[in-house]
Amino acid sequence: MLMRTDPFREMDRIVQQLSGTSGTWSKPSVMPMDAYREGDEYVIAFDLPGVSTEAIDIDVERNMLTVKAERRPVAKADSVTMELSERPLGVFSRQIVLADTLDTERIQADYDAGVLTLRIPIAERAKPRKVSISAGSGRKQISD
User: Fold this and answer.
1) Which is it for the CA torsion 46, 48, 52, 55, positive or negative?
2) Cα–Cα dist 65/138, whole Å
3) Of the candidates 69, 64, 50, which has an alpha carbon nearest to the alpha carbon of residue 107?
4) If you average pLDDT over residues 7-22, what whole number do you get?
5) pLDDT tier at 80 (50, 70, 90 boundaries)?
6) In which element (H, E) is residue 14 found?
7) Residue 103 near residue 123 (C-beta atoms within 8 A)
């Protein structure tokens, strides 16, 4: 049997349920993420512990990236009595508008230890480049 050491934990759980901050199947909650640039790639990492890869859906339409995941309850035997349930269940969703400077055709996704990592290459047209200057008096005047 579990002993509760924090008397306010149940109150926090009730507030989360009433405020809709925990995920449900009808109202997805937002999944935590980090986003950063690493060299010539833009990296987005989502926390999705306990979610199987089959329950993760990644879509890109134009520049809109949508990540959806679902965590279902673990099947319990009839002899099991739940004492405490704090892990959120339901649907998690996140939509991100990607810049035109990213190559959405070559997104790579990796899922390891409960973290979904997307690597999006920076498009060639967005990378810094040098512009050469031509010398000479090749100017022409336009006459009427």
Assistant:
1) negative
2) 48
3) 64
4) 59
5) confident
6) helix 9-19
7) yes
